[in-house]
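Example record

The entry below shows one chain as it appears in the dataset: sequence first, then structure tokens.
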Amino acid sequence: MNPPDRLDLDAVIADRGIEVLICCGSGGVGKTTTSAALALRAAERGRRVVCLTIDPARRLAQSLGLGELDNTPRPVTGIDTSAGGSLDAMMLDMKRTFDEVVLAHSTPEKAQQILANPFYEALSTSFSGTQEYMAMEKLGQLHAEARSGGRWDLIVVDTPPARSALDFLDAPEHLSRLLDGRILKLLLAPAKGPFRLMGVGMSMVTNALSKILGAQVLADVQTFVAAFETLFGGFGERARRTRAALAGPQTSFLVVASPTRDALREATYFVERLREERMPLAGVVINRVHSSELDLSAGRAEAIAEDLDPATHQAQIHALRRHAARMTEIDTERRLLDRFRAVAAGVPMAYVPDQGSDVTSTDDLRAIRFAEWAG
């Protein structure tokens, strides 16, 4: 059995009780590579996996040897399926996902009204929080399909490189509050029902909004809200169900970082917020950890280089100074990791040695080693 601070990722992906594995972290720390490597590893060990990336940078497609990814899961070829596993991959298309939600939860007539509305076009493509909300919608769809005996038993999620993991978790609530909000609902029928007695006041509000937004924009919003009214409750309810599933034992979160000051500071923030929200944190993966097989300190390497004659030992001097620079980097990483382990006491951790080059294929992904300790 591993000590509490050592993360056994093979045990995580082998646990059939874990149905959703979410990799979160700041940008540039190898989060997409980690997601792809774990998805491939799980598939080749018998899990039926779908890997969903919410990051639009398209690195997942590249690492899995696919030309492109879209909102439809695509099978990854060239993997070992002898253990009965499989791997599909997809990239969130928030506009298409929003369209699918509208088509699935409204009548054809209402759906056409919504899809053709200019305000809906803006909401579904550029409104703040829409990407994260649609990620939750898509994750909810995939999880429901998996639980009903669908073609997957593990969903690996590569989240956007947002500062807070809660951007991904809280966006559904923010968007559903907007769509359920009173101001939008008032736009439905400001002169009806209980608002009839407030007709003059509502007229003033409508006139003010018309001046700010423009008469056509306001009309588009009113038309959209009228058509969208029947979907309000469904958005909020689905968001709450998916949020509850993410807090349950069938989900595990991994925080991904690299051994640099800024990345570990961000990882500390992720760990603390996930703990505060009582989310099931499996542990932290530290990518790109450097090491050396040569037991020679930076100071000793520099001293030896100083004693050599540059006229006859130029190559040796260059190699020694390169080694000294590497050992200085390793010493800095170790100090930073020691501090991080102290701050994140009790959180299991795994360490990925620096690959020395970009990961661009499934063979590169297989070569990634998840060590349980970094000295």
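Notes for this example: The chain has one domain: 9-293+331-367. The mean pLDDT is 82.
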